[in-house]
Write a sequence for this structure.
């Protein structure tokens, strides 16, 4: 006997299978694959509402196809090999050939259908961090959907209800899968192209890894002691610069799926945080900053007027995060006589190198390193060693860049007389404390 409730239930099921049938009939869109580790040109819209596309540092945006009024994307979760910088490759898990996965771009109001194929050796899901979507599309394995088993493809369908910057990552064996690099960014452009428009729009996600020197696989159980601090799974000097035309209004969208916060600092300018993964910040609530902290599991987007030409360092302000694999066990030897130390150590280990008695500047130092690791501090600029690593790159603001030109313009040509310079001066002996205190303390 059919109860009314049973009848409705059946009808709903018929509806559901009809939707599935339609998708199957329409076939799954081809999955684009990326084999490059440098920033790909922006993907301009060919139809629909106009928007200024983003560029992803050392990454790309996922191509899509239109199917009726649905925008269809295809993500493939799979093992990948990611080059962190020249000289170091790591076996990660990612999407469509790289880790992190491609940026997904759409427009507010778009209906999107995202196919996710699992080519990992274990199940996965995709969670759409920060997006306002139906609960059943939220991608939390076990809670809102069955896990996607290896070899299977699932479909996520939802409307991009609000514009902004979001992230995607698995909610399925999450600790392992995120520690292996499974993540990416979602940018939803406002439907109104006049809403807070910018001239250049950059996006990247921060992640951290513990990859012991000479090895190729992150230690996924590591909780705190990471040694690779990455922007889009790249470290300095492997991170793309941000080429900017003088006078451009620039947006930088930063996601943090690492296990600690990162205070991100831009030299030479002040900026305002204009958007988080929760939405746009009203202008009345914005304030000027030169460093903004990006908490774990959050997005911060800042807008900056690039009105100061030059090569401007852009980096995490935790100084250990602008280093590559480092020996954290190294003792602080500043002030220790190098000669005595070298003698003492030399007796024990004849090939050793005493370092650090005047600091750790390593510009002219060469140390043997195992294969597949990177120097702690590296990189060379036009004036010498830069001695950075990890989360460091350069915003290159130039007068003569074309509108959509994102190629590295090379080192800045400093106008004559604008660079700090050496003067003739007598040998600067350290200033001694005067014999008598200059102020008497009242007791
Ligand atoms: Cu940091």
């Amino acid at each position: 006997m059919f109860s009314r409730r049973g009848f409705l239930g059946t009808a709903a099921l018929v509806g559901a299978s009809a939707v599935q049938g339609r998708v199957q009939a329409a076939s799954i869109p081809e999955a684009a694959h990326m084999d490059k580790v440098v920033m790909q040109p922006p993907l301009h819209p060919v139809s629909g509402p106009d928007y200024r596309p983003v560029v992803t540092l050392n990454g790309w945006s996922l191509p899509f196809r239109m199917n009726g009024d649905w925008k269809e994307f295809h993500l493939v979760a799979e093992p990948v090999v990611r080059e962190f910088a020249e000289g170091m490759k790591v076996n990660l898990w990612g999407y469509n050939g790289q880790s992190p996965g491609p940026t997904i771009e759409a427009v507010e109001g778009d209906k999107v259908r995202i196919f996710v194929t699992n080519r990992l050796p274990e199940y996965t899901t995709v969670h759409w961090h920060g997006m306002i979507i139906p609960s059943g599309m939220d991608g939390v394995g076990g809670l809102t959907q069955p896990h996607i088993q290896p070899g299977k493809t699932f479909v996520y369908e939802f409307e991009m209800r609000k514009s902004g910057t979001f992230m995607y990552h698995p909610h399925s064996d999450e600790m392992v899968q995120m520690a292996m690099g499974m993540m990416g960014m979602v940018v939803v452009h406002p439907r109104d192209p006049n809403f807070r428009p910018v001239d250049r729009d950059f996006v990247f996600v921060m992640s951290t890894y513990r990859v012991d020197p000479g090895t190729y696989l992150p230690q996924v159980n590591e909780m705190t002691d990471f040694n690779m601090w990455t922007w889009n799974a790249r470290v300095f000097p492997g991170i793309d610069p941000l080429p900017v035309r003088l006078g451009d209004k620039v947006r930088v969208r930063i996601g943090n799926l690492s296990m600690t916060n990162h205070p991100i600092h831009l030299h030479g300018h002040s900026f305002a945080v204009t958007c988080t993964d929760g939405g746009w910040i009203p202008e009345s609530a914005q304030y000027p900053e030169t460093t903004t902290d990006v908490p774990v599991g959050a997005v911060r987007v800042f807008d900056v007027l690039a009105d100061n030409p030059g090569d401007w360092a852009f980096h995490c302000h935790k100084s250990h995060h602008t280093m590559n694999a480092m020996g954290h066990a190294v003792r602080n030897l500043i002030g220790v006589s190098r000669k005595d130390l070298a003698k003492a150590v030399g007796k024990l280990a004849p090939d050793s190198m005493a370092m650090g008695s005047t600091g750790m500047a390593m510009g002219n130092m060469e140390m043997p390193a195992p294969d597949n690791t990177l120097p702690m501090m590296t990189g060379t600029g036009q004036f010498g060693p830069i001695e950075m690593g990890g989360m460091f790159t350069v915003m290159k603001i130039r007068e003569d860049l074309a509108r959509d030109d994102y190629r590295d313009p090379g080192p800045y040509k400093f106008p004559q007389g604008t660079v700090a310079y050496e003067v003739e001066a007598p040998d600067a002996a350290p200033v001694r404390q005067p014999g008598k205190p200059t102020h008497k303390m009242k007791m």
About this structure: Residues 1-21 have pLDDT under 50 and may be disordered. The chain has three helices and 24 strands.
